[in-house]
Amino acid sequence: MAQHFLLSAASRTLSLRSIYKAGEDAAYKVFCQMRWPETNGEAVCPVCSHEESYKITTRRKFKCKNCHHQFSVTSGTIFASRKMAFMDLLAAICLIVNASKGISMVQLSRDIDCQYKTAFVLAHKLREAMATEIHTGEVLEGHVEIDGAYFGGHIRPHNEKAKRVDRRLKQHQTGTRRVVIAMREREGRTLPFVGEHEGEGVALANENVSRLSTMSADEAAHWDALHMGWNVDRVNHSAIYSDHGKHTNMVESFFSRLRNMIQGQHHGVSPKYLHQYATHSAWLEDNRRTDNGTLAHIVVSNAMESPVSRNWKGYWQRAA
Ligand SMILES: [Zn+2]
């Protein structure tokens, strides 16, 4: 039997040991190289694109020789106004990409010894960086599976049987239940969305799936509408999971990862953050055969290209 990818040496190209052994200056250089790959890490002014600058070494800042603008390696990126050492930032990224089912923020804050709030905001910013790879705006092609899975809104049954209510009825629900609708290419990308009803998936398919694709869906009645636009394989899950190649197993395995992430690591999720976890999970799924050094590289370079996060900048200061 072939060895599982994550057990192979090829999957391990980055370690905490190597990050901390190389030290803070080396970690700083990594960020410079990711930010300015075309000049091999030499600073480029974010305002006027001039390639020569004075180095203010003591504060790790640069001053443009042309327009005198002062900037740092993280200015204008999602890491702007970071307080963490570059070494710790790299270590946190390493831990996050190593966690194939996600990592809880309490655990991350203990591992790198930072506040829970710092870990929480950092992880959400990194999920934004991952989202640029997931929500690319390009349509899905080839064979595309679609399905939905419900998350959240759990109603705890009353201790005494006599006082328990019918949890299926709308008046007893909390209003926080959401569905993740995912479309997944058999050989490629996973594209998740969050909605209130699985049937919203038909409109999402219209926007995001090529007309030349073949689709797969289960027996749920709302998917009948897909037949208007595509050739659709249907599989009746009450009778069979895979019927001579007709199945939705790829999208189901995405939901399995997302469920493991939410139940095992985050222990529940508010509707506000569900799309971020779905994105994170899709990113892990699509990169499941990439070694961890490359994964960290992808996250950092995406993060360096992502502008200052509007959602997470000063998040806790604002909430307080
Ligand atoms: Zn300049």
Oligomer state equals: single chain
- Which residue ranges are poorly predicted, with pLDDT under 50 across at least 5 consecutive positions? none
CATH class type of the largest domain: Alpha Beta
- Please give the number of β-strands: 8
Number of helical elements: 9
Order of helices and strands: HEEEHHHEEEHEEHHHH
Major sheet, described briefly?
Answer: 5 strands, mixed
Per DSSP, what share of the residues sits in E-state strands of 2 or more residues? 5-15%
Helix proportion of residues, in percent? 25-40%
User: Strand sequence of the main sheet, in spatial order?
Assistant: 6-5-4-7-8
Shape: globular
Q: Could you state the CATH homologous superfamily of the largest domain?
A: Ribonuclease H-like superfamily/Ribonuclease H
Radius of gyration: 23 Å
What is the CATH third-level topology name of the largest domain?
A: Nucleotidyltransferase, domain 5
Instruction: Supply the helix-strand structural class.
Output: alpha/beta
Number of domains: 2
Bound molecules: zinc ion
Q: How far from one another are the termini?
A: 54 Å
Mean pLDDT: 88
